[in-house]
Amino acid sequence: MATDMQPSATLEPPPRDGRIGTRIGELSLFARVAQGALATVYRASDSRAEFAVKIYDRSAADSVRAELESAAQRRIQHRSVARLVGSGCLADGSPYVVSDWIDGAPLTSMIANRPSWPAVRRVIRSIGVGLDAMHTAGVVHRDLKPSNVMVPATGTPAAVILDFSHALIVGNSRVTQTGVVLGSSAYMSPEQASGLPLDGRSDLYALGVICYELLTGVPPFADASAAELLRKHQCEPVIPPRRRAPDRGIPQAAEDLCMWLLVKNRDARVPSARVLSVTLGAMTDETGKGGFE
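Given the sequence above, the corresponding structure tokens read:
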């Protein structure tokens, strides 16, 4: 019988992850959930709860990165920021960071479902109060993007910020490096793409990109490298959300807020996450009116 089926070898299950079943104190790793260039994230549990365990490679640079990630996350105590549970090194020398497991879906899933303005407002406000706690603690995230935000399946908060692997602790000479560009290019502020010193306003620009993507379905400058993004920042204006997605019924005040977050001159941008939170609190779910009147 003729068939288009590929050779049976391609149907074999992937190799078993040798870390599954590994114990870290009372925790046992039972599933691999994400694989990155520098680290792997596992789901783990003890007798009471579940946790996310990020295991880095064993290089000296990754040991420093894991140390800085845990130091940054340890400073922040807020329900819109994933809680650090612990950190250390495995017997083979691989550094790890343990956080609470957030049962839900990444914000990327919400974007694909074309959320309403009320849903967008709740998520942006939740991320904003998390950023306020973060910036008050002297931490700049530097890699805020939809895949680093979880939307919990039930209850509150509406969103939880994850992954502090690129975080900057303000005043820490080990990570305050002018000219070093870290992060995901589509969400970088102009100052971040330029390699300039950063503060919390850079995270607010990234939140503006997230807001734009939630409202329109696409970021303002998609698929741009860091160099291309820098050129776009210098030469190209952001298309307002209501023009990019005229079928979405975006309230004028929602667009105004989004564009304020995306101002390229950081001195004219939303000045702080606290101001953002107050502004969003004054806006209504139904029309977006209130914060700019």
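Confidence is low (pLDDT under 50) at residues 1-14, 175-179. Try to locate this feature in the token string yourself.
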